[in-house]
Specification:
The chain is mainly α. It contains nine helices and no strands. The two termini are about 35 Å apart.
Length: about 160
Amino acid sequence: MTAKSLKMDALEQSYHALFEDTIREPVMYQILQGFISFSAQLLSTSKELSPIGRTLEEKARELIESNYWDPTWNLTACADQLKVHKSTLSRKFSKESAVSFRDALLNVRIREAKRLLSETDIPLTEVSRLTGFTYPTYFSAKFKKSTGFTPFEYRQS
C-alpha cells in the first residue's frame, strides 16, 4: 500500500509500517502510539502538505482535482469543505485565478476526458460518467465547445 501524496521516502516508509502494524497488531495501545508517532513525524517534516500558507485558490484547485469526477460536487460543496461562504469563494477564486470556479472545474473535467479518450478505449458514456458529467449529451456539447471536436472525433485523431 502506498500513500501517493506523501512525497518523502521516510514518511512513506513510516506510513507503510504503521499500516502493517494496524493490520497485524492486536494491542490497541501500541496501534494508537504508532498513530501518534506517525502524526508527529508527518506534521514536523511535511510543510508542503500543510494547508497553512496556501491561498484559497490553491486549496480550491486541490479540491477540484480531488472531486471533479463527482457530478454533484460544485462550488457550494467546495465552499463547505473550505468553511467559507460560496460567494466569498467564487469572488476570491475568480480574482486570484482569472477564471471562474465553474470554468476551472469544467477545464479539469475536459482535461481528464481528453486523457481518457486518448489513453483508453472506454465507451464515451463511461468517459462522460467518469469525468463528472451526468448526461453524455451535455458532456459532448461542452467537450466540443472546449476543444472544437466531438469526443468521438477527438478519439479518432
